[in-house]
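User:
Note these tokens:
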Amino acid sequence: MARVDPKAVLEGRVPGRPPIGLIVGLSISSVCALVALGTDALYGGAGFWAGLVLAFVPIPLLVALVLTLDRLEPEPPRMLVFAFMWGAGVAVLGALVFNTLGMLYVTVPVFGEDEAHFVSATFGAPLVEETLKGAVLFGMLWFRRNEIDGFVDGIIYAAMVGFGFAMMENVTYYTRAFNESGTDGLQAIFILRGIIAPFSHPLFTSMTGLGVAWAATHRRGRFAVPVLGLLAAMLLHGLWNGATSFGLGGLAIVYVLDFFVLIALVVLILVERRATVGRIETYLPMYASTGLVTPADVHMLRGMHTRRAARRWARTVGGAGAARAMTDYQLAATELALLHKRAERGVVDPRWFEARRDALLGLMSMARRAFLRTPPQNAPPWALQTPSGFMPPPPAGGPPPDPRW
């Protein structure tokens, strides 16, 4: 029997097929990022290196914080990297070009030198930058729609795009601050952009992410809602940029507004996670007849702490291979529940549903066999008194399995 590729099954792609689109996209994004960095290095002098280091320093922590919200059904790392690089490359270089051309040929000739910077920052830059950042999300909606299972996915991808864009933009801001005001100016701008408000760009683009996620998981509003999300991203971005012209009072109002938007996004993520758990409890019991899942296993799948306990147990009884098998089982079961969510909303082709369902069940079966080949000496901790799909079935006509298995 041909070996199943767990990653390909979970990502819904053909095993072994070279991701040509991903390779091309990453290559183009990387070239754009290098061009943007080269421009900063050419004109930035010594301040460029200080700006580059400070722009990168908070990124690993910020990305880690966002990805903690995506543990129940984590997105493919390659797609997350692509979203980040699009923001750091294509979006940044495109914004540099279009914002510069807009200043030279539109805002300065129309509004004059004094007003041009305010108009460009408040209206022009949000339109250009959010369109460029959102382009990758609209591309995913067109080419990788099935990768977006809900609002959490839209927020996560939008945040990665925003972090990439913010990192590269900060290089420019930090370089300029160092060259104009020395270390004092650099320190002030780093505290503002790197510590106080590091989530600004991810927050803006999350509005587009919400719209795209709606379109991927609903039949109604598939065209209007993503456009509304993009407009909301431009509005938040414009309010942020325009507030600098109204002193500390304007900044305080925008900070409070963005704080409440951030809280609302976190609440939305928690609510959707709870809904996913509810779907696991609703849909997975119907597969009890396959022997792949029991009520005890559903209980294990419903919480992050019980999932961690299951992976620890798997590593104890079978080493790293068994731990990977348990992870595959958990992710496949979650994807199966989310697949039913798509069917429930009528946004999935019936033939694709059947093929995807069978592939996920096949992965769950393969993961389960990793344990049954060498039966564990102790019962899974979530099924001490009840059967589990990870315990050998009792002999025909024989007594139930010993709970000490």
About this structure: DSSP finds twelve helices and no strands in the chain.
